[in-house]
Amino acid sequence: MRIAIIDTSTTRAAIIAEGLREAGLDDQVVIDPQGPLARQIEACAPEVVLINLENPSRDLLEDFFAMSRALDRPIAMFVDQSDAESALAAVDAGVSAYVVDGLAKQRIKPVLDVAIRRFQAFSRLQAELAEARTALADRQTIDRAKAILMRRRGIDEPAAYALLRGHAMQSNRRIAEVAEAIVTSDALMGDLP
Amino acid sequence: MSTEAFRIGFVPLVDAALPILAHELGFAEAEGLALTLVRDVTWATVRDRLLYGHSDAAHMVAPLAIATALGRDRPATAMAVPFVLGLNGNAITFSIALGEACGLGDGLGDPHALGAALREVARARAAAGRRLRFGVVHRYSSHNYMLRYWLAEVGVRPDSDVEIVVTSPTFAADALAAGEVDGICVGEPWNSIAVDRGVGRIALATAQIWRRGVEKVLAMRADVAAERGEATQRLIRALHAAAEWFVRPDTAEASAAILARPAYCDAPVDAILRAITDRLRLVPGGAPVAYPDFMFQYREAANFPWRSQAAWLYAQMTRWDGRGYDPGEAATAAATFRPDLYRAALAGTGAPLPGASSKLEGALGEPIGAGSTQGRLLLGNDRFFDGRAFNPDDIPGYLAGLP
After folding, report:
1. Per residue in B230-250, pLDDT tens?
2. Structural domain harbouring B358
3. CA distances from A81 to A107, B137, B264 (A)
4. Would you call B168 and A56 a contact, using CB atoms and an 8 Å cutoff?
5. Other residues' Cβ atoms within 10 Å of the Cβ of residue B3
6. Distance between CA atoms of B231 and B229, rounded to whole angstroms?
7. What is the pTM of this model?
8. Does residue B34 sit in the same domain as residue B103?
9. How many domains, in total, are found in chain B?
10. Same-domain pairing of B202 and B160
């Protein structure tokens, strides 16, 4: 069963491909998002196509499926309403699937399950990465604010940090927010006596 | 009045204006609604989010709502269209080369004369083995049907003399620039952006093909519209208030500034402003040309979902899908448009409410007073460029008379 993967994120495409391989689904083609879509699909003649929901080529792809003579059977998405739950899980995860009409449901299910899990894992990774980036940026801002306080108040680092923390607690704000305000005001008014 | 949340899907286009303005300008809030707008760049995703409950309602090309009710490409799902978001507002833009080959002047083309010129070019290109290719935004779009209506009437056979492919509106200008297509039929601001980028020139407004062509609608799942009947009425009132505001000449700049934002169209204010004010820059570097009623969002009860409009779209679907006319499908298509919901929502307001739910489409040459159960209703010229009228009660007869 040949599976084509179309994704605007090449990283996520690789993650899905790997997941499918682990599940023993080796016959797969990752479509180059920069290349001509219809021609690539035509050339690999897949039985299942996975595409991210936010891909700007979905309308074009569906038109191609509807018009295509090359794939001789129409490809339909989620036409089997008995499996609405899988379809919903897929849409929630951000992936859509097209399957050759008539392909047995028990053969599609594992593909969709892998895709859903990998999409979810990718979203988690992205969220963690964004969190890590924020944490790093926060740390840098706090360090700069501490340096400003140390310089202008003539205090040492633990005292500068205690000042930041105390003010944050009092004003019910995050330490990074207080630090950000100090850095901003220093940039605008630091040269004033 | 408790606050009701509504998530509304949309594609970045000028005619997504009403839900966006209802949200931004407090018309929704005044009805006790909290709107969240969900932006997507394909109609496929707008439709899937609606079907699987990621959104409660959506800005949608009218034929797609009908296609969904009929089970085209998705499991058949009963749909409700209680409000039309606007008429027309689309254009056909040629590549610079095709415009020159067809002898386009500085103004909008004449549908008949331009069609005759295009027919010759299309035949020459087909004979040379390089058929002209046009991009439309979706198979089930008014753009596709308007373009085909025009082409067929002027003697250019869609799918045999010329190719028609799908191009995402946001990439339409790119497709023209790359030579992937020779022309596009898309909504604004994407025609104007193609002109501003110097890669195309506007040949026709779709309003020249059908003076009052149904365009985007508010689409909902019928079960959601029924379960949330009261909230749906509030939504209709909020959209109606937004429409009344939107068509005021003194609000155009404010609307354009909102629609241009990255969260909405993410496009230049100027191109959006031209579309809203019915002024189109037709050729790169040219002065904008006024074309009245290019977009039509409010007057003449434009937001009323006439069942005959749905029937016309179904007729075009039948014409081009090659599936044959089916009276059951025709009834389902017409029933997707819900004038009953529109009337219930706007009863007791000043809005004119048509007495009928269906009418002869394309039969009016002059403005005429029409029967209403509330307010005074005036309907304007709604002609098709070929002078044909559409009788929703005789679709087979209508289809038989088409080229």
Report:
1. 999 999 999 999 999 999 999
2. 351-400
3. 16, 27, 33
4. yes
5. 11
6. 6
7. 0.89
8. no
9. 3
10. yes
